[in-house]
């Protein structure tokens, strides 16, 4: 892989620890510096890696020792931070979604193209053995021609465990924009891009009560829909039914199922990297487990950044900006359809990312 990619992390909230552990264990990545609006939080995040510079954001952007900015800020700040990194001539890898809206995401991609830098974006969970083994099963024809898929995520809401859940309930949040990227990215990986959508949405209540941390008991306003459902029409002709909810207690539905003319697959939780893929063919009695046959083994958050580091110049990373933009466009189109009551054509498209063979980083 040559010299490691020097990573500067902006945003040291709850998710940063998972990324930092991945950066630490992969030889293709090196932690160069961190920054956060709260310097104390940044210092605490890198306490296990003494000597890591804690810098103001502007200094991190200007640091010639940083090759790529890992943008772990809240969704509302994703575009601003990404544009700062691009202006500094650095590659950027964002937590999902790429931006709070597709207009800002488009600005990021245009700026990156003009500057000749690369954009990557979570979720990279789809590069693990779970989704990639399911994709190989689809590509190998084990279910025949795909006809449909279902994707279900149901939870009472993140305010029960997150000490500062406000951003989940403002524009850029909600169950679709928060958890939908995992599911829609998986569906695009499995079945290809989406051409149109039709949706419906609702909001159970106007306030939420924080359930943990120093703000426990505080009420926060809800300004987004908290139950979103709809149908995605894939370019291939397959139809995916999506249910994303912060309004229900639990579900026994599989996270994702793919149905084809010859069989059906149960696909693992797309919020995880691994998991068992199950297949039932027409005429089979029950399900059988498929062995791991594709994807990065024992992957963690940040494997998409490592994949970007090994992507040849001029090629789109597997967890790339174009895919992330299409996923965001699909989700915004679904919300627009829910608001209007009419089907919406998805303006963007993307290439189905290259499959990942069975690899250990």
Please tell me about this protein's structure.
The chain is of the alpha/beta class. Helix 5 (102-115) links the parallel strand 4 and strand 5. It is globular, with a radius of gyration of 20 Å. The protein has helices spanning 16-25, 39-45, 57-62, 75-87, 102-115, 129-139, 174-191, 303-310, 321-340; strands at 5-10, 29-35, 68-71, 91-94, 119-121, 146-154, 194-202, 207-209, 219-221, 227-234, 239-245, 256-260, 263-267, 277-281, 288-290, 344-345. Helix 4 (75-87) runs parallel beside helix 5 (102-115) and helix 7 crosses helix 9. The protein has 2 domains: 5-121, NAD(P)-binding Rossmann-like Domain (Rossmann fold), CATH 3.40.50.720; 126-294 and 320-345, 2-Layer Sandwich (Dihydrodipicolinate Reductase, domain 2), CATH 3.30.360. Helix content is 30%, strand content 23%. The strands form 3 sheets. The protein has a 9-stranded mixed β-sheet, covered by helices on one side. It has a 5-stranded parallel β-sheet with strand order 2-1-3-4-5, sandwiched between helices.
């Amino acid at each position: 892989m040559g010299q490691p990619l020097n990573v500067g992390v902006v945003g040291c909230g709850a998710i940063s620890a998972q990324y930092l552990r991945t950066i630490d264990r992969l030889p293709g990545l090196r932690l160069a510096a961190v920054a956060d609006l709260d310097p104390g939080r940044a210092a605490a995040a890198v306490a296990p890696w003494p000597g890591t510079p804690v810098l103001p954001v502007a200094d991190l952007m200007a640091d010639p020792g940083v090759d790529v900015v890992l943008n772990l800020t809240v969704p509302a700040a994703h575009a601003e931070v990404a544009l700062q990194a691009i202006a500094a001539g650095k590659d950027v890898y964002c937590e999902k979604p790429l931006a709070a809206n597709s207009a800002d995401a488009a600005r990021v991609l245009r700026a990156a193209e003009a500057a000749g830098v690369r954009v990557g974006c979570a979720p990279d969970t789809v590069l693990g053995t779970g989704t990639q083994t399911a994709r190989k099963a689809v590509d190998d024809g084990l279910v025949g021609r795909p006809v449909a898929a279902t994707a279900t995520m149901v939870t009472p809401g993140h305010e029960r465990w997150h000490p500062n859940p406000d951003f989940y309930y403002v524009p850029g949040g909600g169950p679709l924009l928060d958890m939908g990227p995992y599911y829609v990215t998986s569906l695009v990986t499995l079945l290809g891009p989406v051409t149109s959508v039709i949706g419906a949405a609702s909001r159970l209540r106007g306030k939420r009560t924080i359930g943990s941390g120093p703000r426990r008991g505080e009420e926060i306003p809800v300004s987004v829909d908290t139950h979103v459902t709809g149908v995605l029409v894939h370019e291939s002709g397959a139809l995916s039914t999506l249910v994303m909810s912060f309004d229900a207690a639990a579900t026994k539905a599989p996270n994702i199922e793919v149905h084809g003319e010859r069989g059906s697959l149960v696909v693992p939780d797309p919020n995880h990297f691994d998991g068992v893929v199950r297949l039932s063919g027409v005429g089979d009695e029950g399900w059988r487990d498929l062995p791991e046959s594709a994807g990065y083994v024992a992957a963690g958050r940040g494997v998409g950044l490592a994949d970007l580091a090994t992507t040849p110049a001029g090629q789109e990373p597997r967890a790339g900006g174009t895919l992330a933009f299409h996923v965001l466009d699909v989700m915004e189109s679904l919300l627009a359809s829910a608001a209007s009551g009419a089907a919406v054509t998805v303006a963007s498209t993307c290439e189905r990312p290259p499959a990942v063979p069975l690899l250990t980083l």
